């Protein structure tokens, strides 16, 4: 990965130009990275205990999420895929909403309609992805066009994976973005795998970043396990977009340390040695060494921080375990702005049977027809 | 004979044709070393080599478009779409290209290919891992649509689909992948693409269903017999296009009382076609209005999926209502 931008070497030593962040800001990045690791651990535990259905972790990808989202302003947009939930929390998604989404319960702002790992947060311009790989790429480009048309200086960070570079949305999105010169940054998190397909099998191009110039804008490769490199490259690309100079593609090269999701067994298709080699490049350990050397955190402080984070996460989990049952009317609401006649009738037929069986709660009753 | 799950029967079917016909190639996302996310293609790369079973880049449009070209030039592609919900990026290639090729070329070019895809709910997969989109495809002239509900039929229909001269969408009920088991003959056999299967004989109420709804309907029919002495004739359609029209009408005439069950939404769903056929061709035999038991006309939910999916209680309610009419 000689060509990829790097500021911290895997041993934590400084090999590039660190961004001009205060100690407090540097420390903040670290806490957010730890929070992502802690949340993944807890969510996996809940999944194994059968409390939630599915987890797609960001373990090993913490630097990409935190570094890429750090330079965004609150009004900038982050277009997400499966693994960006931690960045949403960092930008302001309340932890309770994060956990409620994982439970898909009545407190979930999407009313339990999406499967786990589909976070949204309107307050910081973070729509959820659908599940259909690559479709958010063109959405981000269209929304960036809208921001540009209104003369705002809002920037759109459009995240997707190595696998998504093969989708139709990738081509259309980058093509339109180049032609329209929209204020967008394409953030390709190359984590080595698209489920069981290696990123080297997605393209015969020399790199994903090499595709950007063909669309008329720059692409750069960044060591995705180096949070400062991610922050610095994204900061440049975001400011370039904000100045009206057009899009950039930033490829964050990293590694998905765990399975694709809690339903996947990665030992079937990849070698242990590969995983072990990447474990030595762990983004949190690397950054911890840098911060310790600089005196931003003290030796052993990580454990205290993690303990605090877990207390906070566990309290939220406890709260969400007690969520009320989902209102049955949510079955037919939000399909259209108003619940149309045919859906009210379908619901009423259904609730008549549910009431007979004692499955309905107060408030679940029929719609007026 | 071997006792196999539905997904093992699919795997067995693929192996059987791959052994017999070197032009059969299996490809899609994660179908290679991983063996597919549901393991339908497990072991095929190891046993037949990478040139026969292989992973593709993440593009359904690419998968189906290249399958059309392969089929036009002498291969027998069996392409997998990982979830039916992700077939829509390939909708154009299926609807505009594969399905219309024979017609637009006056029969000079054809696309004998199979698209295998798991469909349906019951795994808490939310909007995009649960849909039943058969109606979009059954509506498309030039395409065949097949949905098995037993291991025996899964293998026999799959082999027939691969050998068929036209493009076939082979929809696999993922909820039944490991929940049903049955005797599956060894070696090659086919189940005709256009014959329904009578699951249960009965003279009181006819119920049409397919895929994952078949066991649900069987349970409801057993309860109807037990609790009310109502004898249901249960029909598994198996092939939605071409449909065994004669068999469908015959079954309706036998009882004069009809229920149609599918998990897909109701509006313009497959049940509407069955109802219309009966209204057009044998209304004079009908003793009660046709009842449909279906998913809601909404996107597929997640947390409330057990309320969305037709269950035996809702089917029983419909059986009783047409019987008591
Ligand atoms: C259109 C579409 N096809 C297939 C899938 C199934 N699927 C879910 S995630 C995934 C791999 C995605 O890989 P990548 O883009 O690298 O993202 P990562 O999971 O590595 O973050 C696949 C094939 C899907 N969700 N959407
Ligand atoms: Mg990936």
Note down, in words, how this protein is organized:
The complex is a heterodimer of chains A (369) and B (325). Chain A is α/β, with parallel strands linked by helices. Chain A has 2 domains: 23-321, Rossmann fold (3-Layer(aba) Sandwich); 327-369, no CATH class. Helix content of chain A is 41%, strand content 8%. Chain A has 11 helices and 7 strands. Chain A has helices at residues 23-48, 62-69, 85-91, 95-103, 135-149, 168-180, 227-242, 272-279, 283-294, 301-321, 341-356, and strands spanning 77-79, 156-161, 184-190, 193-194, 197-198, 219-223, 248-253. In chain A, helix 2 packs parallel to helix 3 (85-91). The longest helix of chain A is centred in the N-terminal third of the chain and has 26 residues, at 23-48. Chain A is globular and about 70 Å long. Chain B has 325 residues and is an alpha/beta fold. Helices cover 37% and strands 20% of the residues of chain B. In chain B, the strands form 3 sheets. In chain B, strands 3-2-4-5-7-6-12 form a 7-stranded mixed sheet, sandwiched between helices. In chain B, strands 9-11-10-13-14 form a 5-stranded mixed sheet, sandwiched between helices. A two-stranded antiparallel ribbon of chain B has the order 1-8. At the A-B interface, helix 11 of A face helix 12 of B. The structure holds thiamine diphosphate and magnesium ion.
* Helix/strand class of chain A: alpha/beta
Q: Can you tell me the number of structural domains of chain B? A: 2
- Write down the overall mean pLDDT of chain A: 97
> Which CATH top level class of the largest domain in chain B fits?
Alpha Beta
Which CATH class of the largest domain in chain A is shown? Answer: Alpha Beta
Global outline of chain A: globular
Q: How are the strands ordered across the major sheet of chain B?
A: 3-2-4-5-7-6-12
| H/E element sequence of chain A | HHEHHHEHEEEEHEHHHH
**Helix proportion of chain A:** 40-55%
Strand order, biggest sheet of chain A? 1-2-3-7-6
Element order of chain B: H for helix, E for strand? EHEHEHEHHEHEHEEEEHEEHEHEHH
Distance between the termini of chain A: 64 Å
Q: How many individual β-strands of chain B?
A: 14
């Amino acid at each position: 990965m000689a060509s990829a931008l790097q500021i911290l070497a895997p041993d934590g030593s400084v090999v590039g130009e660190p961004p001009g962040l205060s100690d407090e800001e540097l420390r903040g990045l670290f806490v957010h990275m730890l929070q992502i690791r802690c949340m993944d651990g807890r969510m996996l535990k809940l999944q194994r205990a059968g409390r939630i259905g599915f987890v797609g972790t960001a373990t090993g990808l913490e630097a990409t999420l935190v570094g890429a989202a750090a330079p965004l302003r609150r009004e900038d947009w982050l277009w997400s895929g499966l693994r960006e939930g931690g960045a949403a929390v960092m930008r302001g998604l309340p932890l309770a909403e994060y956990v409620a989404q994982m439970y898909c319960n009545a407190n979930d702002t999407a009313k339990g309609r999406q499967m786990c790992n589909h976070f949204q947060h309107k307050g910081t311009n973070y729509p959820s992805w659908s599940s259909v790989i690559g479709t958010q790429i063109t959405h981000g480009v269209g929304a960036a066009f809208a921001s540009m048309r209104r003369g705002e200086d809002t920037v759109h960070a459009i995240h997707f994976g190595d696998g998504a570079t093969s989708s139709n949305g990738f081509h259309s999105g980058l093509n339109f973005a180049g032609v329209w010169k929209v204020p967008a940054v394409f953030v390709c998190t190359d984590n080595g795998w698209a489920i069981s397909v290696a990123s080297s099998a997605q393209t015969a191009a020399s790199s994903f970043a090499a595709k950007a110039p063909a669309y008329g804008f720059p692409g750069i490769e960044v060591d995705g396990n180096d949070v400062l490199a991610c922050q610095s490259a994204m900061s440049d690309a975001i400011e370039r977009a904000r100045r009206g100079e057009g899009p950039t593609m930033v490829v964050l090269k990293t590694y998905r340390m765990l399975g694709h999701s809690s339903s996947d067994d990665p030992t079937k298709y990849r070698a242990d040695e590969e995983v072990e080699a990447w474990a030595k490049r762990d983004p949190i350990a690397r950054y911890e060494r840098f911060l310790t050397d600089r005196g931003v955190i003290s030796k052993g402080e990580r454990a205290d921080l993690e303990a605090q984070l877990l207390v906070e996460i566990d309290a939220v989990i406890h709260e969400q375990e007690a969520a009320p049952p989902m209102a049955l009317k949510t079955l037919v609401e939000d399909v259209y702005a108003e619940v149309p006649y045919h859906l009210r009738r379908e619901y009423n037929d259904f609730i008549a049977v549910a009431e007979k069986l004692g499955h309905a709660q107060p408030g679940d009753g029929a719609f007026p027809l | 004979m071997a006792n196999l799950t539905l997904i093992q029967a699919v795997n067995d079917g693929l192996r059987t044709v791959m052994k017999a016909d070197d032009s059969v190639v299996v490809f899609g996302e994660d179908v290679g070393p991983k063996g597919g996310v549901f393991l339908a293609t497990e072991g095929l790369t190891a046993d037949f080599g990478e040139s026969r079973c292989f992973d593709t880049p993440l593009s359904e449009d690419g998968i189906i478009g290249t399958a059309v070209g392969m089929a036009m030039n002498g291969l027998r592609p069996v392409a997998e779409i990982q979830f039916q919900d992700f077939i829509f990026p390939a909708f154009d290639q299926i609807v505009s290209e594969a399905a219309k090729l024979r017609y637009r070329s006056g029969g000079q070019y054809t696309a004998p290919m199979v698209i295998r895809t798991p469909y349906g709910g019951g795994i808490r997969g939310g909007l995009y891992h649960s849909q039943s989109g058969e109606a979009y495809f059954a509506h498309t002239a030039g395409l065949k649509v097949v949905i098995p509900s037993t291991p025996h039929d899964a293998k026999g229909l799959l082999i027939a689909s691969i050998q068929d001269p036209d493009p076939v969408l082979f929809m696999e009920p993922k909820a039944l992948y490991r929940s049903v088991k049955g005797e599956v003959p060894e070696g090659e056999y086919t189940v005709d693409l256009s014959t329904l299967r009578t699951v249960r004989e009965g003279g009181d109420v006819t119920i049409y269903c397919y895929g994952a709804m078949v066991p649900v309907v069987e349970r409801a029919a057993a309860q109807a017999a037990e609790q009310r002495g109502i004898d249901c004739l249960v029909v598994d359609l198996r092939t939605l296009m071409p449909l065994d029209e004669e068999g469908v009408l015959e079954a309706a005439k036998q009882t004069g009382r009809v229920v149609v069950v599918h998990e897909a939404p109701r509006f313009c769903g497959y049940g509407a076609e069955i109802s219309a056929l009966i209204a057009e061709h044998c209304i004079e035999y009908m003793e009660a209005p046709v009842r449909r038991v279906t998913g809601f006309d909404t996107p597929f939910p997640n947390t409330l999926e057990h309320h969305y999916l037709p269950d035996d209680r809702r089917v029983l309610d419909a059986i009783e209502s047409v019987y008591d009419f």
